[in-house]
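Anyone up for a design puzzle?
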């Protein structure tokens, strides 16, 4: 009787092991299919995380929550989800791989496209975090924008060349002349977008940030800058806040010679956190000028009840807020 009971449990255990082995074999096979797809498309091996089976009313597939090239390991991109895609293995008609990593490359292409003009206008100290919205056919930004413009002209339900994200410029605003210089440069950048046909459907944040937040002394709090900024009382008048902030930040001025190159600290900024959590997590209140840019067509398709601005003159660059003194 005892041996019969034992055989029964061994049989059940065997069935469980068989089922689990089938499941894990399929999971492993799906990951191999995805890895093969990614290697064929992008020419390198990928890190694949969170592979799991999904099912809808009709569709069945495996999905990897995170994919990125193994070449990212040990770089800032490894921990920044702005550079991550998702992977898919369709099951309805055999195993077929797919991914969204091409969108990452498209966004990087957009950053490079605008970066040349941004460097010309503002110097090296800027950060472009562009997000090209909607389905895509090309990973080259210019090709994708041209393809979308043509689709709008020739197809019903074409995909608009919609661009969102942020441009972060690191500099100084200490007087009206500085502010007006940024107004003029931002105007020139918008004219560049118009000239290149990329200002059709735009929702863009442009932020001017105190460049001293890129100093090692600021980021390491080696002279207590972050501590002093955190100690500024809340709910004090704006004028008083700006005065206190100015005095604290001016203590960093003697370190300019030590910080001629900001590139390393600029590249440490996590682009996804910057967009999702806001610049304040890095700047600690040292945002100087902010402009929200909506193109006229974008306002119309979104149905926003906003004043349409064509940005035909620099006087039409009206900052949403200014916090400098």
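Challenge accepted. My sequence:
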């Amino acid at each position: 009787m005892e041996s019969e009971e034992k055989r029964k449990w061994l049989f059940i255990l065997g069935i469980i092991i068989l089922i689990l082995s089938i499941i894990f074999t399929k999971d492993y096979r799906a990951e191999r299919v995805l890895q093969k797809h990614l290697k064929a498309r992008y020419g390198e091996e990928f890190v694949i995380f969170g592979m799991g089976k999904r099912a809808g009313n009709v569709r069945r597939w495996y999905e990897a929550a995170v994919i990125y090239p193994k070449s990212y390991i040990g770089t800032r991109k490894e921990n920044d989800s702005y550079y991550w895609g998702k992977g898919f293995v369709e099951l309805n008609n055999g195993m077929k791989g797919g991914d969204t990593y091409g969108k990452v490359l498209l966004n990087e292409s957009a950053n490079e496209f605008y970066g040349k003009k941004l460097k010309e206008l503002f110097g090296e100290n800027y950060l472009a975090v562009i997000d090209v919205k909607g389905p895509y056919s090309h990973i080259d930004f210019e090709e994708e924008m041209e393809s979308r413009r043509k689709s709008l002209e020739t197809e019903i339900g074409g995909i608009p060349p919609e661009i969102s994200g942020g441009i972060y410029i690191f500099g100084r605003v200490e007087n009206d002349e500085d502010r007006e210089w940024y107004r003029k440069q931002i105007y020139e950048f918008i004219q560049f977008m118009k000239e290149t046909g990329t200002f059709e459907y735009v929702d863009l944040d442009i932020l001017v940030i105190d460049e001293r937040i890129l100093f090692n002394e600021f980021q390491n709090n080696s002279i207590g800058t972050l501590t002093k900024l955190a100690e500024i009382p809340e709910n004090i008048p704006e004028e008083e806040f700006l005065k206190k902030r100015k005095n604290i930040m001016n203590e960093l001025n003697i370190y300019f010679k030590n910080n001629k190159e900001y590139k390393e600290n600029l590249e440490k900024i996590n682009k996804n956190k910057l967009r999702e959590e806001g610049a304040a997590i890095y700047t600690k209140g040292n945002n100087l000028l902010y402009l929200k840019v909506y193109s006229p067509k974008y306002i119309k398709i979104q149905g926003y009840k906003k004043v349409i601005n064509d940005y035909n003159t620099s006087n039409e660059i009206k900052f949403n807020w200014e916090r400098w003194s």
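A detail worth pointing out: The chain has two domains: 41-99, 104-322.
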